[in-house]
Each structure stands twice: as structure tokens, then as C-alpha cells.
Amino acid sequence: MKRLNRILKDFLNLSKYHQPKLELINISNLLDRIIPTLEERSPSGLTFKKNGQITTPFFCDADYLHQLLLNLGINAVDAVMERCKKETSFSCRDGKVEFIFGKQGNRIIIGVADNGIQISEANKDSIFDPFF
């Protein structure tokens, strides 16, 4: 119930600007908390992988980054599950979600990749619209 209340509060506060609360985090440790959550809501056999070379902690708002990566992971799982439904030759055991992270100069690069169904051409222009 506590988590649901926090999610609802966060949802209602989306339109407000919040000063980021910067703290030192380790991306691998953060993913160690996110991946089990995704595994719980995923079909059996879908695989998750961390692929990165950032070993030093960096400053960010850990709560925002956690929510961002969790949302992207949920979207990736949904895309894999949708492909499972639509393609008889694709099994959910073939599904993969990968969190990719690294450094490029002084920037941290984080990505989420999956082998699920692709975004339709009609929807590509809307993917960054809130609540799409």
C-alpha cells in the first residue's frame, strides 16, 4: 500500500518541477534492484542482462533514474510479450532485455534494448510525449 501511495503521489506530481536530489550511485547496484522486479512480472525464460563498464559511482537523482530504468524495462518486457503473442515462431524463452551502460568522455550513456515487437511507424513521432 505504501508503494502504491508513493506511485500515485509521484504521478500527481509529474507536472511540477522537482530539484534533483543528487547522490553518488553505482549503476550496477541500481540494476541489481530493478532486474528482479522485472523478472517477477515477466514470462518464464525471458532473460535480462547487464552489459557495461562503469565501475566508478557517479552523481544523479537515484530515485528518478530508478523509475526511468524501471519504466524502460517494463516497456521492453511488454514489447517482448507482444511479440510472443503476434509471432508463432517467437517464444518468450527467446526474449531478451539488455541494460547497456558506459562512458563517453565525461558523459554516462545508459540504454535499454530488447528483441520485442518494434514501434510502429505511426507511433514513432509520439514516443516522447508524456503518457503516450
Q: In words, what does this structure look like?
A:
This protein is of the alpha+beta class and 132 residues long. The chain has three helices and five strands, in the order αβαββαββ. It has helices at 2-12, 27-40, 62-86, and strands at 22-25, 47-52, 58-61, 96-104, 107-114. The strands form two sheets. A three-stranded mixed β-sheet has the order 2-4-5. A hairpin with a 2-residue loop joins strand 4 and strand 5. Helix 2 (27-40) packs parallel to helix 3 (62-86). It is globular and about 45 Å long. The two termini are 26 Å apart. The model has no long low-confidence stretch (mean pLDDT 87).
Quick recap:
The protein is α+β, with helices and mostly antiparallel strands. Helix content is 38%, strand content 23%.
Uncertain spans, ≥5 residues at pLDDT below 50?
Answer: none
Number of strands: 5
Beginning-to-end CA distance, first to last residue: 26 Å
Structural class, by secondary structure, is: alpha+beta
Shape: globular
Radius of gyration: 16 Å
What share of the residues does DSSP label as strand, in percent?
A: 15-25%
Sketch the topology as an H/E string, one letter per element.
HEHEEHEE
Mean pLDDT: 87
Largest sheet: 3 strands, mixed
Query: Total helix count?
Result: 3
Strand order of the largest sheet: 2-4-5
Work out the helicity level.
25-40%
